[in-house]
Amino acid sequence: MSHPIYRLTETTPPAVEPLDLAETKTFLRIDHSNDDTLVTGLIYAARQFCESVTGRSLITRSYSLYLDYWPGTTSLGWWDGVQEGADILFNNSALNLPKPPLISVTSVKVYSVSGVATDFSSANYFVDTVGIPGRIVLTEGALPPIPGRIANGIEVNFTAGYGTTAASVPIVLRQGMKQIVAHLYEHRGDSPDQALLASGAALLFQPYRALGLS
Prior knowledge:
2 domains, three-stranded antiparallel β-sheet, 10 strands, 26% helix
C-alpha cells in the first residue's frame, strides 16, 4: 500500500463563514430579522456540505493529520524483541494532504513506542503548495520518518484554506452555497443532498472537487 489510511482532526475552526448574514439575506430578499437564526444555521450547513462535496477547506483553519506510516513504506512493523516500527522499504512517495488548498505545514512529529513526540526536521522535506492537493515531498537523500508507535505514529500539522475572509473564497463556491441556502429556506425539511441538485449548486461545485490522498 503506497498511501496509508489517515485520520484527520480540525484543530482550529474557521473564524468566519464564507457567507455573511447580510449578503445572504439580500440574496433571499429578506428584509426582517425574524429568521436570522434560521438563515445563520443554513449558512453553516451549506458551508459544511460544500466542503464535504468538494473536499476543500474554504476559510483558513488548522488540521492535524495522523498516519500509521509514511507513504511508500509498508504498514507492517517487525519484532525481534524491540519494536522497530515500519519496514523502511521506500520509494520516495509524496504525502498528499487533504482539505486543499494547502497554505503551510507547521510541523511533522514522529512518535516513539512510548508515545514521545520528536520533530521531523523541515530540512528533510519540501512543502508543495502549488498543486491540488498540496503535498510533502522528501528532499534528496532524506529517509522517511519511521514511527515506533504502531498506530497514529506520525502527526502532520498544517494550515489550509483560501483565506481568512469570506471574500477569499471563490465566487463560484459562494454562489453555490447561496443557492443551497435559498433552496433549504424555501423547502424546509429537504436534505442538503436534495438542495445540491435542485438548486443547481452541484454543477457549480463540480470543477472544485478535490482528489483524496490516493
